[in-house]
Write a structure and sequence with these properties.
Shape: globular
Strand order of the largest sheet: 1-2-3-4-5-6-7-11
Structural class: alpha/beta
Radius of gyration: 18 Å
Oligomer: single chain
Distance between the termini: 9 Å
Mean pLDDT: 97
Number of helices: 9
Length: 270
């Protein structure tokens, strides 16, 4: 398993602190980061400047994530464009978030998401690029729980799973039970840890379906049983990578927390 980090989280810290992107990525590589994980929007904006830095560091792109709003009109051409962009970046997979439910049109919206993801998975298969879905932690995402994500995966055999350890908190579902349910379909893993109280002044809260709050924190420092998930990955000879994710962390401290997450992971991966 190789360790990757969300580029958007690094970018937030670089923008806040004024650090250079090249020197920051070099420091992360020294700590154990081997790959970068990036959104389609970020690659469009920063790819030309970022590509030579990655080449110099001999650092690849683990995967790309993209929002394609199928209920609001995203179509096959958009799916094909996302696949081509991921291939241009050298990404090993493409995660698609296919939109959200609107009031009064839930069945229609879910049907359009299903059709869109089926089409996107076919486009990816045609180009040899795995297309994935995750357990997105949004109240209006019908794939924000075990049953919802399973609905899509059961109906699209060519679709893989990007498993997010910290997103099943939306309905207080057990992350280990979820891991076992999706283990055979997991192609990449987002490592997100959660805690009950903020670690920094400007950490943003995530509101669960029951209106209680939780927060993101450095990987290995919170309540999500990430050590157990890593052990289960090793038992299954998991062929993919792990990705540190720290959205909603106070930008003044996100680089430190990302770095400590990478260091914790390196110490806990055999």
């Amino acid at each position: 398993m190789k360790i990757a980090v969300f580029y958007e989280n690094i970018w937030d810290g670089v923008r806040e602190t004024g650090a250079g992107m090249g020197e920051t990525l070099r420091a992360f590589k020294a700590a154990g980061m081997e790959l970068l994980y990036i959104s389609a929007d970020s690659w469009k904006r920063d790819g030309k400047a970022l590509a030579p830095i990655l080449r110099d560091l001999e650092m690849g792109v683990e995967g790309m994530h993209a929002f394609l709003d199928f209920p609001k009109g995203a179509a096959e051409k958009d799916a094909r464009a996302a696949v081509e962009l991921a291939l241009e970046a050298g990404a090993g997979n493409l995660l698609i978030v296919p939109g959200f439910l609107s009031t009064g049109n839930s069945a229609r919206d879910a049907g359009r998401m299903l059709d869109g993801m089926r089409m996107a998975a076919a486009c990816g298969k045609e180009k040899g690029l795995p297309v994935l879905m995750e357990d997105f932690d949004g109240i209006f995402a019908p794939y924000n729980c075990m049953a919802g994500l399973k609905y899509f995966l059961d109906r699209i055999p060519d679709l893989g799973c990007a498993f997010d350890t910290g997103n099943f908190v939306t309905f207080r579902e057990d992350e280990l039970e979820a891991f076992d349910l999706f283990a055979d379909r997991i192609r990449t893993l987002h490592l997100k840890d959660r805690c009950a109280t903020p670690r920094h002044e400007r950490d943003a809260a995530f509101c669960r379906a029951d209106q209680t709050k939780c927060y993101c924190c450095a990987v290995g420092s919170g309540e999500i049983r990430i050590k157990e998930i890593l052990r289960r990955l090793e038992e299954r000879a998991y062929p993919g990578n792990v990705i540190v994710e720290l959205y909603c962390c106070d930008a003044r401290y996100v680089l430190d927390d990302l770095l400590s997450s990478v260091q914790w992971l390196r110490a806990n991966l055999s």
